[in-house]
Amino acid sequence: MDFAYCFFKFDSGFSIFRIARSTLISVSNQPFVIAARAKGLSQERIWFKHILKNSLVPIFTHVSLIFNFMLSGAIILESIF
């Protein structure tokens, strides 16, 4: 419970959603997505194969940074107290 609360507190959780939204929007307007639509691929295939695959990198980077900050804060706090 404590881990989930710390991980999804307001500033961290909302920043993850903001980055996910902006990344998904920017990737969905890329030329390779437009080309996939022109080929006639289904929306599900475009979303899962092209858009999500390319937009997960910045999202995972941000989540790992938040996790590293939490872990380093816990180590510092445990060493002090």
From TrEMBL:
Question: One biological-process term from Gene Ontology?
Answer: transmembrane transport
**ABC transmembrane type-1 domain ranges (all copies):** 1-81
Entry keyword set: Cell membrane, Membrane, Transmembrane, Transmembrane helix, Transport
- UniProt topology in membrane: Multi-pass membrane protein
Look up keyword Membrane and say if it applies: yes
Family annotation (InterPro entries): MetI-like, MetI-like_sf
| Parts of the chain that traverse the membrane | 55-77
The cellular location(s) given in this protein's UniProt record come to: Cell membrane
Xref: PROSITE patterns: ABC_TM1
Q: Which GO terms describe its cellular component?
A: plasma membrane
Coiled coil (UniProt feature): none
Please state which protein family the record places this protein in: Belongs to the binding-protein-dependent transport system permease family.
Please state what the protein is called: ABC transporter permease subunit
User: What species was this sequence derived from?
Assistant: Candidatus Phytoplasma australasiaticum subsp. australasiaticum
